[in-house]
Amino acid sequence: MVYFSLFAVCYSLFLTSILTQFICVVCSAICGYVSWRWYKKSHPQQGVFILDSTQCRFENNTLKINGHISNKSRVYQDSVWLYINGFASSHWLIINASGVDELSFVRLKRITLVARREHEESK
Q1: In terms of pLDDT, which residue wins out, 37 or 20?
Q2: Whether this model's pTM surpasses 0.90
Q3: Which tens digits make up the pLDDT trace of 33-57?
């Protein structure tokens, strides 16, 4: 998204009308703001994360998520992207390895893989 925004701003400099340049910059700014809000919501800097089997709960001063780890969750080497199905809505939660201790991160990766495997076996 960042590269697209930079490309759009640079491209707007070659447009012939001032109005189209302004519209292009404003649209890029709006897209950047929406992307930044999504990033901050799904990638919190601090909070408490509680795991119980495939159920999880996350709380910090602005966000409270409670639900089940979905099969859409992804495990990467340095991060875990959790898709949490809540009672009323679903949320993405991204946890980096540098944000937690090594043992807790390994446990989170295992539980995420177990949740994915259980969903595939239940089909």
Answers
A1: 37
A2: no
A3: 888 888 888 777 777 888 877 788 8
For the chain, the structural domain boundaries read 2-42, 48-122
What tokens does 37 get? Answer: 């809000």
pLDDT, one tens digit per residue, over 55-76 is 888 888 888 888 888 888 889 9
Q: Tell me how far apart the alpha carbons of residues 69 and 7 are, in angstroms, rounded to a whole number.
A: 36
Report d(CA 72, CA 31) in Å as an integer: 25
Task: State the Cα–Cα distance between residues 123 and 116, nearest whole angstrom.
Answer: 11
User: From CA 54, how far away is CA 110, in angstroms rounded?
Assistant: 10
Q: What is the dihedral of CA 88, 94, 100, 102, to 10 degrees?
A: 110
3.90.79, 1.25.40, 3.40.50, 2.30.29: CATH of 48-122: 2.30.29
Residue 76 structure tokens:
């990467």
| Cα–Cα distance, 11 to 54 (Å, whole number) | 47
CA distances from 54 to 82, 86, 113 (A): 11, 12, 10
